[in-house]
Specification:
By secondary structure, the protein is of the alpha/beta class. The protein contains 30 helices and 14 strands.
Amino acid sequence: MSEAASITWHEANQCYLMARLHLVRQALEFHAESGPARFRSVSQSESGTEQQPASSGEANFAEAQRLIDQAAAALPAQSALDRMIEAFSLSPFERDLLLLCAGMELDGSFASLCGNAQGDAHANFATLSLALAALPEAHWTALTPAAPLRRWRLIEVARGDTLLQSQLRIDERVLHFLAGVSYLDERLKGLVEPFTPVHDLPQSQLQLAERIGDFLTLEKHASVWPLALLCGNDQAGKRSVAAYACSKLGLRLHVIQGADVPQSVAEREALARLWEREALLLGSALLLEQGEQDTTPATISLIEGLHGVLFVSVRDSLKLLQRSAFRVDVRKPTSVEQQSLWRVALGPAASQVNGEVERVVAQFSLGAAEIYAATEQARGEEVLTAGTLWNACRVLARPRLDDLAQRIPPAASWSDLVLPEPQRRTLRDIAAQLRQRGKVYETWGFATKDGRGLGISALFTGGSGTGKTMAAEVLANDLQLDLYKIDLSQVVSKYIGETEKNMRRVFEAAEEGGAVLLFDEADALFGKRSEVKDSHDRYANIEVSYLLQRMEAYRGLAILTTNLKSAVDNAFMRRLRFIVQFPFPDAVHRAEIWRRIFPPETPTSKIEFSILARLSIPGGSIRNIALNAAFLAASAGEPVTMRHLAEAARSEYAKLEKPLTETEIGGWA
């Protein structure tokens, strides 16, 4: 292998840059000695025009040009300088002016040369006046604000008395690029981050990426820069789709968050210019990720005016006035694709969780990146089992829901629940349907028959303290799912449309994480629609109508609890898979609740459960009495006795403003 063939691009690029700088140095020396430069420009050299050197100076120029040609021939790929010339459409004079400024940083002799050429030792810096006098094909317009050197901020102009005499400096980022060192501009760090996909796309998303790539290929020479609008519910998938589409164009992908777009016009303009320059230098496209609260006039302005290949990630759509968009919906991989992704991610370990993959896919709707993340988290445990994989999926989905609802650790089990057998059987039917929904919907084809109403919704109705919330805990615990109680104060808004947005976020986050949603006191949110008398009634009815539709589309388990079944809109009843009536417990059930209410560790003495069952109270009040009695006994250093329970019962009845009759408490207090 020859020496020329073994040279690296960085070495060849450095040689080429030094050869170009040597030619500019010759121009400065010639100007310092004999006035205006009369050496041949590159364009003259390449034109083939026969010119005879008029002096030793011109002979030096010819030798410098020979060195440039020799360095160019050794380049294995386009030089950084030529890439910049092409990207920013620089004229020969603009190129040489940029090199003059670069020489000040790379060659120590340039400072003294500039001083000599300008006849002032103190003027040892580059100026437009010097460039116009010393460099060929000079033109004044090279430093207008709209010209490439200043528009793209390749050169900085220091404050001076006149533009002619102001000091010129090359931007540091541009200098390093010319030297072959490429990186993201430091001023964009923290705002714009590179993204490289690490996993293959599922087939459905790969087809989307190819469609986008074809569109961008056709539109890249259009007068208006192409924009791809990525909608849908797979946020991580959108990044990968955009990155694969970029690879088809030979581009890399960088990401910015809509929330980070500056609101100030000046700052936003500076960001746009810096990014547009980086896009040309790095060969990159930008993905702007829009949250629901991020669509502001500032982000719209940036999207409308930003040049270059741009992707915008939004939930639904985006209204633009000046820029057309190519829209695609990026959805989570299909169930079959998710199963395939799990098996690839697990590798040989898939045999350790035989049969669990189908169950996980039936419960959790995860994209490719999330599947690999859950796999890594499960591998971090001592032993990879079906349980660790399942828990990894639960934990992965928690952050999104934790911001929207209250997570209740489900501690209650079937043994804690005291209900008549018909109600217990219905609850077990709910659990069975949730476990088998993958088989029924996917394997048996019910999902393709009708895509609506694939979730399981249940209404728990009954008086306060009858066990509705405990039953929800029992189901979540039995199904090994997280239970989230929806805080209505966080989702219901007086502003039009905000309640619907908040509820959509809750449902979408829950669908991804397979959580159990608990809407406590649901009649406040799912109340009956009323006759429209004014605009408030109309928008209230719209909210209820939206919730009706969203409940039907939800694919998980949603539990509504209410003390007033009659207050719930009748349209919800049709959409509810189960309705469970929680009755007020009779004496037999109350005695059973009393037997189960004390943990095994609690010391008790001579407690008569049949006598306690005389108290005509629901399970919630029984728990309060037992807990308060335990505190009384602990304070006295005694086991829990009937005396402590009697005192606690009096407090509970006083709180409820109920009389404690002799029939209820006689003989034990």
